[in-house]
Amino acid sequence: MAITEKDVARIARLARIELSPDESTRAQNELNGILSLIQQLQAVDTTGIEPMAHPLSAHQDIALRLRPDTASPTRTLQERQALMANTPAEDNGLFLVPTVIE
Amino acid sequence: MSSTPLHTQFDGIASLRKALQARELSARDLASSALDAAVARDDLNAFLHIDRELTLTQADAVDKQLSDGLAGALAGIPIAHKDVFVTEGWRSTAASKMLEHYTSPFDATVVARLKQAGAVSLGKLNCDEFAMGSGNENSAFGPTRNPWDPTAVPGGSSGGSAAAVAAGLIMAATGTDTGGSVRQPAALCGVSGIKPTYGTVSRFGMIAYGSSLDQAGPIARHARDLVELLDPMSGFDPRDSTSLEHCDGVPNAPGRIRADFEAALAGQQSADSQPLKGLRIGVPAEFFNGALAPDVAAAVESALQTFESLGAVRVSISLPRTELSIPTYYVIAPAEASSNLSRYDGVRYGHRAAQYRDLAEMTSRSRTEGFGAEVLRRIMVGTYVLSHGYYDAYYLQAQRVRRMIVNDFQQAFSSHCDVIMGPVTPSVAKHIGDNREDPAADWLADVYTLGVSLAGLPAMSIPCGFGAERRLPIGLQIIGNYFGEGRLLAVADRYQQATDWHQRKPEQR
């Protein structure tokens, strides 16, 4: 089952990527090449095999630790400024984006 | 220009440490000479960010500690970090235009731990963008060149790390390995590298690629120097949810790997003429067919014979799903990448497009402009295999095959062998620009390293010879069972005591 032009458009939209018509054609060709590689997996009989998300689960019982869901506010203005130093646009501690709701 | 770094007069970190502690030379002089060399070898494009003042300030602080007798185990040792570790001071870009101007408000745990031990950083090393690639050609800031041949790739994704160590610009470097990105460049540059067991080294501050695979590891000339770096790098970190508190009952803390390494060495010395007597080396048949170049096969075979002469025995094993590790990895890693890289939206940090009509366009245009071709490719593959209607067929199926691959390794270790050996790469380093028309062709060359990453096992690469037609380095891969880093390093060290491949330098091969 090959990837169509429509599929590429759907993937690009889901991934928040813009593709020109040329790039879209190129992506379609590449993705179809990659698809033929990963389709080898379909031939493997995996009946009764549990999907593995954590590599060490073959070796030991494992669960990812979760930290307590608590806020840790910045303590000083300088700390806040350091944390926001990389934002493309800010105003007084707020990240600026284009208007979403008029 | 004469610019031989002072540290190249020493055969390793231990002897350099001795000279530093005896105050025969200063951390400042070492750092200064290494910086001169790094600048003089600009042609390699191994470094992305150098800040002379910052490095020399670090070195001065270490010199004071040395005078006060308070110095850590790596005091004054010149190293550098792959640019996927965030650093205070130097920019942290993951070799991406997306993060071209990013400066981190904190150090990655690995960076902080090595700094704490006294290592002096020369800056940040080039790599494939977001660690996606195996030739360092996917860097937004140009490819790194292989010190053995400037027309060849250094491997990747930790290509700058391996090239800088091979060129003698630094004593050691950090790297990261998601599908072979420490082992493969180490092999292609003729240096040593280790990827430890998943979960033993903190990934806090390591820019994420494939979270069920990513693990940090050092690159250096030889196994002993790898111990010097890996031991203080490892240890539990509550800020990484995959970080392990214990390794088979032993606290995950600095000292664990060194203790295992020394215990393994002590065990070897009790049987002097055959120090590796009793060691069972599993040799997977699947690593020696098809794509493997004859010169690589010959070098690996010769290394295996050396191990036999040291007392080890060779056992034929099978890892029947070796080929399947390629499609398995290239479903799972892109899936995780597409999720991890969704954070780059042009809002809080990273590139933001100049022109856009609304929020959605700002995000998509920023991402399209900020990411390079390979990153976009993997995001699209990952998005596809996770999307409605394909999740079960591709992503879950890949996770099932992953378990089968992992079980194959466990079968080998439980019944047949103590370590597994084979090639790292099917051939020596390719030329820069090869495979440009077929981007997925490079993926096939990852066949010997991907299984280990899927299994989270520790594995290393050490130099074991040179190509026949193109005299470029060849690496031997040594794979261990979970938490076997110390033993692996001791096995590699024994080989390096018997051979001199790791001492060869590009100018005197």
Keywords summarizing the entry:
heterodimer, A: 102 residues, mainly alpha, Histone, subunit A, two-stranded antiparallel sheet, 3 helices, 2 strands, B: 509 residues, alpha/beta, eleven-stranded mixed sheet, two-stranded antiparallel ribbon, 13% strand, globular
Report on the structure:
The complex is a heterodimer of chains A (102) and B (509). Chain A contains three helices and two strands; from the N terminus they run αααββ. With 102 residues, chain A is mainly α. Chain A has a domain of 39 residues: Histone, subunit A (Orthogonal Bundle). Chain A has a two-stranded antiparallel ribbon. In chain A, α1 crosses α2. In chain B, β12 and β13 form a beta hairpin. In chain B, strands 1-3-2-4-6-5-12-13-11-9-10 form an eleven-stranded mixed beta sheet, with helices on both faces. In chain B, strands 7-8 form a two-stranded antiparallel ribbon. Chain B is an alpha/beta fold and 509 residues long. Chain B is built from 16 helices and 13 strands. Chain B starts with 12 loop residues before the first helix and ends in an 11-residue tail after the last helix. Classes of the chains: A mainly alpha (102), B alpha/beta (509). Chains A and B meet through α1 and α2 of A and α10, α11, α12 and α13 of B.
Name the average pLDDT of chain A: 92
Q: Largest interface, and how many residues on either side?
A: A-B, 52 and 75 residues
First-last Cα distance of chain B: 22 Å
Which runs of chain B of at least 5 residues are low in confidence (pLDDT < 50)? none
Note the overall shape of chain B: globular
Task: Pick out the low-confidence regions of chain A.
Answer: none
